[in-house]
Amino acid sequence: MAPLGLKAIVGDKIMNNVIKKAREKGKWKVLVVDKLSMRMISSCCKMTDIMSEGITIVEDIGKRREPLPSMEAIYLITPSDESVEGLIDDFRDPQSPRYRAAHVFFTDTIPDSLFGLLTKSRASKAMKALTEIHVAFLPYESQVFSLGRVDAFQDFYSPFKADVKNNMLESCAEQIATLCATLKEYPGVRYRGEYKDCAVLAQMLQEKLDGYKADDPTMGEGPDKSRTQLLILDRGFDPVTPLLHELTLQAMAYDLLGIENDVYSFETSGMGETRMKEVLLDEDDDLWLTLRHKHIAEVSTAVTRSLKEFSASKKMNTGEKTTMKELAQMLKKMPQYQKELSKYSTHLHLAEDCMNRYQGTVDKLCRVEQDLAMSTDAEGEKIKDPMRLIVPVLLDTNVNVSDKIRIILLYIFLKNGVTEENLCKLLQHANIPPEDSDIISNMAHMGVPIVSEGTAKKTKKPDRKERISEQTYQLSRWTPLVKDLIEDAIEDKLDPKLYPYISQRQASAKASAPSSARYGNWHKNRGPTEMKTGPRIIVFIIGGMTHSEMRCVYEVTQANGKWEAIIGSTHILTPPKYLKELQHPDFLDPNTPPEGTEEPPAE
Fold it and tell me: What's this model's pTM, rounded to 2 decimal places?
């Protein structure tokens, strides 16, 4: 499958502006990358495409490399101290440079200080080109991007990291600006007014965007483009979503199965022996595309149905409910369809794995979590005594500590904070070890009420849209808040007092022309890289986004023919990672040594 959306756009940009640009007929080259650019390339480009453009080997600038003095190198690197140092180092010795010459492409604007170092170094003599391509984000899915900054959560929220926070926001602004430039958007920038630092990032971003706009006045031109908005939020805007057990396939699998780097590993029992199999869950797999946002209750039937259609088209017959065994039998008979059939078996496995984790413990938790998050039960009755809901879970020895913490936090949010004394009782009942109780107290740094002294004024919770219908699963009644915000922004109903603009774009007169037939049939025969011409709403969350929030942008885009919603964040969160971040040592006061330990050496 051709890559879609963001991945296609970035893939094109890397191939055309870097790889093909430096290509010379008959000459093979080395491609040197660093961490961020490697992740960019691997998410958008196929290795075979790169090789066919005359690249013989891809090397990591941070690792020891064989010198290849007869070949020229293309450097696609971030303008960071380490990467620039690596580049300078490659040409330090005039007698034996590592490569014959360098074609340098920076993902982003290079700071003057580093540029100075570079021009003074011997590398400058070896450079045949120096370009900034302005792509400094990772396209994670067709409508999702990440900045690949895993420390952002503690850097942003820890009171002891105030010194690094500004630099972190500054580089986030740089990275988001490259996303807008890549999409050719000049959005109206809005931010969550309740948390002071959202405004700081919004202001920085606006300055960077104005710089890009000055260089390229056509950025953000086009019918309806003046309506494009970029909304900056921080994780505290919706602390609930990352705590819930989600039951749609992608979110559920990433929460329960500990999938790292999008690789799902499972045991397959093929011809007698069991072996571990690893599968990459990404958009090249069209079955994954159709399943990832489905509720787990529908997944197995969807896989079986899709398999039946496949086998019918290949004149094989399958029973009503296909089991793993039958799939193995079919594989024996039909070895030529191994690729397709193994895809089905992967997803049956994935769904089965999720269901096995779910039955017995998670299903009980889901009921309580949904009631607490919604503050009403499945019948829509208000929950009068939430304590009665949570005590059985807290006393249950089969429930692990992190699941108990998730429940305690949801209870505290529902109550808008609890007294110190009640919090201690909860922790005692639930047998939460003291080192884990930090997770709960650190939540307060996100501007969320945790311990209230009873007199504190109640913070008003946002009114939520009524979405529950006959089709809603009882254990999936909660909708991430971001979906409300995106829909309101599209309908122009998002309160400018709560989500102020840094600068609002004036709609140009020609933008209000009646929408012509070109919008009417944009979904037919559209080439994969052709861009949507309508406006976009881009949401950026400082401190991590969840898989269920990613799902929302697809749902909104699906329901809104003209608008495209895109979501991005500093990094991607799953509930276990969210709790881990709240427990990060960066939240400890560096000046008070923990009891019973010696002072750690200063860094």
Answer: 0.88
